[in-house]
Amino acid sequence: MRAKGLFVLLTATIGSVTLLTGSATAVGTERVLLSFNNSNGSAPNGSLISDKAGNLYGTTSAGGADGDGTVFKLTPSASGKWAETVLYSFNNIDGANPEGSLVFDNAGNLYGTASNGGTHSSGVVFELSPATNGTWTEKVLYALNGLDGSHPFGSLTLDAHGNLFGTAWQGGNYAGECLYGGCGTVFELTPAGDGTWSGSAIHVFDGADGSGPFSNVIFDSAGNLYGTTSGLLSNYMATAFKLTPGANGEWTETVLYTFNGAGGAQIYSGLTLDKAGSLYGTLWSGGTHATGGVFKLTPGKSGQWTETLLHSFNGKDGSFAYAGVVFDASGNLWGTSSGYGSDLGSVYELIPNGKGQWTISVVNTFHDVQVNGGIAFDRKGNIYSTALQGGTSKNCSEGCGMVFEVTP
């Protein structure tokens, strides 16, 4: 199941398609860098990453040569225009429907996940390696088999030893609360000297500790992993969790917080860690107005974590946040919200006042394009992201999606 279809079931039906349109209160200037047309990809769902030369890289969950999604590159020119190169089109055998973002290793290889396809039709982890002539070669590093996870939606995390960590929305133990395909897993892939990779689930969710993880996991300086579950497959309670490595290679899970009431509902974003050890993320729903928000989790001396709702979206300053938040050099938080129906999506900045309160500044608003991509900055402070719909192509009923830039 692709994320777009899932969200339509949970919320209002998406209305007519428009290009990104700033509201009267928006203080940023935006422009569309690329409109997908299905043949070069469609429905980008993840965030963008950049290389040292300023090129942008991302995925589309559909479109391409076989309709199963693409990996693309955008190259800027001196004139301000951007040229797209489709680095790879998936064909289901090697994976299908990549939903998450990409990650580079030190050698310039790209790694990502495809939520479907592969040997067991449960999704794959792939690598794209560049050649000196500008071409890229795809390799399936591992095909998930269900027991170690099914349908990875999020991006991957590399550790210092070259191991890859990710989450799978379903899979694991098929018993318990999540009879439909399992409650999901956190998995690890380890490279061998001969170029092969081995994979295993380092944690299997059982519903009571969360279910349906959608996003990536992050490390702290001690080597612990942190992430979120959406709660969609069990009791609809999202969680934030911690995985602690042991000397024997096993990992121990701790549920840091269970979201409920006005303080949270479904969560699709990953977490961001600050220097003090607090965690930040976004709510897809919940909050004061039931249209999502931004939260902070603060650790206490007794081991308990306290949630603070930093901002609740009200439909005019944003709604339904899919992507997480990132810090800038000044300690401000930046993110996007998707928007639905009459509720606007937004590019926003949250500014702390030093007294525990945060003020929102809406940099840009948009309507009916569902921005699920998070924030990527360039050196000048310009913002880049992706929209699942919209654009100028008529090859898709709601537009095939686009890459856009916002200049604050």
Rg, Å, rounded = 20 Å
Mean pLDDT reading: 90
Overall shape? globular
Beta content comes to 35-45%
Question: What do these coordinates show?
Answer:
It is built from 1 helix and 28 strands. The strands form 7 sheets. The chain has a 4-stranded antiparallel sheet, with no helix packed on it. It is mainly beta and 408 residues long. Helices cover 2% and strands 38% of the residues. Strand 6 and strand 7 (110-114) form a beta hairpin. The two termini are 35 Å apart.
Précis, in short:
With 408 residues, the chain is mainly beta. It has 1 helix and 28 strands.
Note the main attributes of this structure.
single chain; 408 residues; mainly beta; four-stranded antiparallel β-sheet; 1 helix; disordered N terminus
Topology:
Elements: H1 3-10, E1 29-35, E2 49-50, E3 56-60, E4 70-76, E5 82-89, E6 103-104, E7 110-114, E8 124-130, E9 136-143, E10 157-158, E11 164-168, E12 185-191, E13 197-204, E14 218-219, E15 225-229, E16 239-245, E17 251-258, E18 272-273, E19 279-283, E20 293-299, E21 305-312, E22 326-327, E23 333-337, E24 345-352, E25 358-366, E26 376-377, E27 383-387, E28 402-407
Antiparallel strand pairs: 1-28, 2-3, 3-4, 4-5, 6-7, 7-8, 8-9, 10-11, 11-12, 12-13, 14-15, 15-16, 16-17, 18-19, 19-20, 20-21, 22-23, 23-24, 24-25, 26-27, 27-28
